[in-house]
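chain and backbone:
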Amino acid sequence: MESLGVYLKSRRDRVTPAEIGLRTYGTSRRVPGLRREELAQLAGVSAGYYTRLEQGLAETASQQVLDALARALRLDDVETAHLHNLARRSSLPKMSDPGPEEPHPRVLALLENLGETVPALVFGRRGDVLAWNHGGHSLMAEHLDFDAPGDPERRPSLPRMFFLDPLTRELHRNRAELAPIHVAYLRLTAGRYPTDARLAALIGELTMRSDEFATLWATGDVADCTVGAMRLRHPTVGAVSVDYQVWLQPDSPDHRLEIYTPKDPGSADAVKILTGFDR
């Protein structure tokens, strides 16, 4: 899993002196972004302390220091939250196996109330599909067994499907746009749950088996994933364009209900076919 120091360095490398108005007087630079000393000065901390922080030698960092670093690095709200999550890892217990997830009854009730005309899936914290309706299954993974989410041993994993399953890779016409979002959200999740051994194993597996994932993971980017667009190349109904939207419940933030709505009349007709397909 990612450390605070690694993340700080990746963000420091991303900011150029020109962006923040630092003069370099034409001197050659051996780093792609800010020097440690420059970032420390901008954040109002000593260069020695920042160096220890980046090297993992400092015990901890206060909220004020982290916020100052976030401002100097021009982090957005999601990136700042990730920075704080990484900083508290040193006080947490070692990795543990939390076991299979079970979808919250309230999320399942929402899924049921949507009926079958709106394709929808329920994801757990690691991107496992905990439940889906027939429309969501037909739209996103009709090549898999409909009952698979109910069995923790056969439960589909969205990250594995997206990066390792050839049929899912072929499904997404805009995968070049979606892939960085998948990786950035998984990194955000890893910061929220730094002791989840299953999550760490998933990231390790994807890094080893997918060059695309490994390249994107190395960027260090983090992002939330709540709305967006998918352009699909569906094997049954052809081209389909949908918007996805995530519904979150305050008492079960680990579980995300993702719904898909068509973007145009042709896609709406395709979704109607799929929501009544084989039933």
Observations:
- The longest strand covers residues 238-248.
- DSSP finds 13 helices and five strands in the chain.
- The chain has two domains: 4-91, 105-275.
- Strands lie at 120-123, 129-132, 227-234, 238-248, 256-262.
